[in-house]
Amino acid sequence: MANQKSVLVSLVLTFFFGPFGMLYSTVTGAIVMLVLYVALGVPTLGWALVGLHPIAMIWGAVAAKNG
């Protein structure tokens, strides 16, 4: 049980810091979401973040639970 990560901490960090908060639980996921935030957020003037932010939170929580 070495290096167990907290799901609650992952959710809080991702809620407040977006993909940067995902660095706590998954580096690869954080990079993927950061690219998606920029690639989809800029052309839609931020509206894509309404859908991407919950996905990032779920991904971070699942990664913390499994990792």
Structure characterization notes:
- The chain has helices at 7-17, 27-41, 49-66.
- The chain is mainly alpha-helical and 67 residues long.
- It has one domain.
- The longest helix has 18 residues, at 49-66.
- The model has no long low-confidence stretch (mean pLDDT 95).
Number of helices: 3
What number of domains?
1
Kindly name the structural category.
mainly alpha
Q: Based on CA inertia axes, which overall geometry fits?
A: elongated
Biggest pleated-sheet summary: none
Helix content: 55-70%
Radius of gyration: 12 Å
Quick overview of this protein structure:
The chain has three helices and no strands. It is mainly alpha-helical and 67 residues long. The chain has one domain.
Write the layout of secondary structure elements.
Blueprint: H1 7-17, H2 27-41, H3 49-66
Helix pairs in contact: 1-3, 2-3
Give short descriptive properties of this protein.
mainly alpha, 3 helices, 0% strand, 67 residues, single chain
